[in-house]
Fold:
Amino acid sequence: MKKILPYLLSAAITFIPAAFTHAATASAPVQLIVLSSGGIMGAFKAVTPEYEQRVGVKLQGEVAPSMGATPQAIPNRLARQEPADVVLMVGAALDKLIKDGQVDPKTRVDLGKSYIAMAVRHGAPHPDISTMDAFKQTLLDAKSIAYSDSASGVYLSRVLFNQMHVADRIQSKSHMIPAKPVGEVVANGEAEIGFQQLSELKPVDGIDIIGLIPDQAQQMTLYSAGVVTKSKHPEQAKQFLDFMSSSAAAPAIKASGLDPIAK
Structure:
């Protein structure tokens, strides 16, 4: 992830406790398939090289939305019985997978809190969202608005815009973006303003992040993780989650745009 400073991770896990160290065979190291929502993928990518080197497992990360109708979404992939060992995703969506028997409830851990931010194309004027009145006017003035088909976009389109009494007035210029990062849509000029979790906007080139939407409009999204019930390597998967939820991984989670929840 380009915008996470590498030294933060290096300083955080110069020493990985013995509890996280597991010898893998030199000929065939264990490979964990990690399905990750975009909101936590930045932190996952940041810790991967050091963790692989020190622990001796391979981490194969695949971007997968926490929810939605797209085939890439984590629930849909698990329903098709695609191989996976670990899921990093929105907590509420994870809880449903636990209820459905797809994820081991004993392995559930919380990793970080995420908040919704707004972005424009790099170099474009920066609209004012510092107050609720300014935020509302920015929505009304925008030529086009984009938001995700995951947690933040569902909240914006189904709850917040109705509460702000702007839903009907901005409906024709608003677009829910399936699977693709909202920041990329903004960077390409397909939308004038875009909303998504800060951690999902930070990795995208070609945009300016204006900041978080006002506190009165904000909704926190909790990112959590668990071991897939049908994992072929549950011990190593649980070991990785022990690390991700520890203070050693907290700097990488923080740098990605999340507020870490470390043990």
About this structure: Residues 1-8, 11-15 have pLDDT under 50 and may be disordered. Residues 116-217 form a domain with the D-Maltodextrin-Binding Protein; domain 2 fold (CATH 3.40.190.10).
